[in-house]
Amino acid sequence: MKTKLIATWLLGIALTGCQKDFLTVIPETALSSATFFKTEADFQQAVNGAYVPFRQMYNERAWVLEEMHSDNTYYARNTLYGAVDPTENVADFAVPTANGVTANDNVLVQYRLNYVIIARANQILALIDGTGITFSTPAIKDNLKGQALFLRAFAYFDLIRLFGKVPLHLTPITGREDAALPLSTTEQVYAQIEKDATDASKLLLNKAKQEAGRATSGAAKTLLANLYLTQKKWAQVESTMKDVVTNDGYALMPDYNNAFSFTSTNKNNQESVFEIQYMEGSAGYNGNQIYRFLPSPISAAEIAPITGTSNPQPTSQESNNIPTPDLIAAYEPGDKRKDISIGTVVLSGSLRADKNYPYIKKYARTHSLNQNTGQNWPVYRYAEVLLFLAESLNEQGKTGEAATYLNQVRTRAGLAATTASSQANMREAIFKERRVELAFENKRWFDLTRTGRVKEIIGAYGAKVKANPAAYYFPAGAVPPPNAFTVLDDYYGLPAVEAALTPNF
Q1: Nearest alpha carbon to residue 478 among 174, 104, 19, 84
Q2: Which H or E run contains 322?
Q3: Exposed end of the chain (fewer CB within 10 Å): N or C?
């Protein structure tokens, strides 16, 4: 128990660096990297700690910045609740930004959580090859090192897609003088992500051998392919994804509904390439995403069928991540994914004339207690591997081969084979398929930025919201703010709080 408590405390703070001066005596009663990292179990606990920030990130912030900041979801204005908050600024494309920085809290927290992952991974990578540490087998050491590399690559990939330029920390910070690095270019960060993800793919175990929930070689290769896709390195996407399809043992779940975990079952299933782990209960590993997404005000009687809890509680809050009419219309007739992904609830207390609201049903899994869920969050699924492969093939002029992989996704959805035959038509077909297949999985914003379609698509979407607020869940008399849909940049401003700590922003 004592060891567990000490390790937990240690991983909850920034680990201090190694002392370079061998004459410096390190107090044996003080926890530091020099006194903690002694055994295989210590590195195992450190790797576990590097995953921890994901739970808060995906529960609270990633969906705000990467899904609701798109035309897939919006907020349902609840004038009974109060003022517009920073989350609504994100949905309205009205994040206040000046001189490249913003005070938006969602941006700050997402930025910091990614750097917590990076800092913990850097500490592991700086010490794991040191002398005097014995591992049971070389494969165990490789697996731990591979996870740290994957996690660092993943965090930097999220950061660079959100901000465009970020500081590139690759070693533990030992003092204030090395805490404020200059901003690295997009290309420099891309190069590091590629190196880390490539190395991770060679060190990690595949899905069949890896402990459930940990990064696998397939997850590292999928991250690498995602990077190549962003860079438009189509041949590299093709070869990397064909490797995953051929060698890594993934498959589509026959039923789209079962591609996603329940609160305690169906986790890390055959379609799961990487997902964020939650556990229902009192241990502190739970999430509560569905409660953040539900439209409001909602009564206990109205929420009970959605959550299935024994103690349903009413809420009156701002309603975030509500599926837009645009997304709902994007599903083709007969698409099985629509009713699995999106439900409808009638809110008797709503001030809207139309009291019907859509909500994200794919995350509404029955659980025991109010505000305490255990469903995992899907980050990469095999369906996306197939769509990555289809896109890379089409961009190389292999449109017929691309259709083969696109149609695997469509067939499961109950749809006929694509009719797209030209490269341009197939490009649009894949773009649309990604939207409905991966809805609410934090993919849409990055699809808009990497294809250069932010101003085209969000500009038209914003015009519709402002022209007809009632269709976008505003009650009578309420309208979007005057600055709505005025900040259509591909990147967020860097956090203003962090800018105050460095001369480099």
Answers
A1: 84
A2: strand 319-323
A3: N
Express each pLDDT in 167-214 by its tens digit: 999 999 988 778 899 999 999 999 999 999 999 999 999 999 999 999
Pairing of strands 272-276, 319-323: unpaired
Whether this prediction's pTM lies above 0.90 is answered by yes
- The residue to which tokens 């025991």 are assigned: 368
- How far apart, in whole angstroms, are the C-alpha atoms of residue 89 and residue 405? 38
List pLDDT tens digits, range 86-136. Answer: 999 999 999 999 999 999 999 999 999 999 999 999 999 999 998 888 999
Are 272 and 381 a contacting pair, CB within 8 Å?
yes
Reply yes or no on whether the pLDDT at 8 is more than 70.
no
How many other C-beta atoms can be found within 10 angstroms of the C-beta atom of residue 265?
11
The pLDDT, as a whole number, for residue 19 is: 38
Mean residue pLDDT across the chain: 92
Candidates 169, 165, 186; CA nearest to 499 is: 165
Q: Pick from 59, 2, 51, 54: which is nearest to 31 by CA?
A: 2
Q: Which residues contact 417 (CB under 8 A, 6 or more apart)?
A: 403, 407, 410, 411
Q: How far apart are CA 314 and CA 42, in angstroms?
A: 44
Give residue 242's Cα distance to chain centre: 24
Which pLDDT tens digit goes with each residue over 139-172? 999 999 999 999 999 999 999 999 999 999 999 9
What are the boundaries of each domain within the chain?
39-76+86-203+455-467+484-504, 289-375
Contacts 24+ apart (CB under 8 A), 255-262: 256/336, 256/337, 256/340, 256/412, 256/413, 257/340, 257/362, 259/378, 259/381, 259/383, 260/362, 260/363, 260/365, 260/375, 260/376, 260/378, 261/365, 261/375, 261/376, 261/378, 262/365, 262/366, 262/375
CATH architecture, range 39-76+86-203+455-467+484-504: Alpha Horseshoe (1.25)
CA atoms within 13 A on the CB side of 34: 15
- Nearest to residue 354, comparing CAs of 468, 480, 475, 467? 475
Question: Rounded to an integer, what distance in angstroms lies between the CA atom of residue 436 and that of residue 256?
Answer: 12
Helices 382-395 and 217-231, packing angle to 10 deg: 30
Secondary structure letter of residue 259 according to DSSP: G
Strand partners, 74: 322
pLDDT tens by residue, 22-76: 344 444 444 466 668 889 999 999 999 999 999 999 999 999 999 999 999 999 9
CA–chain centroid gap for 13, Å, is: 23
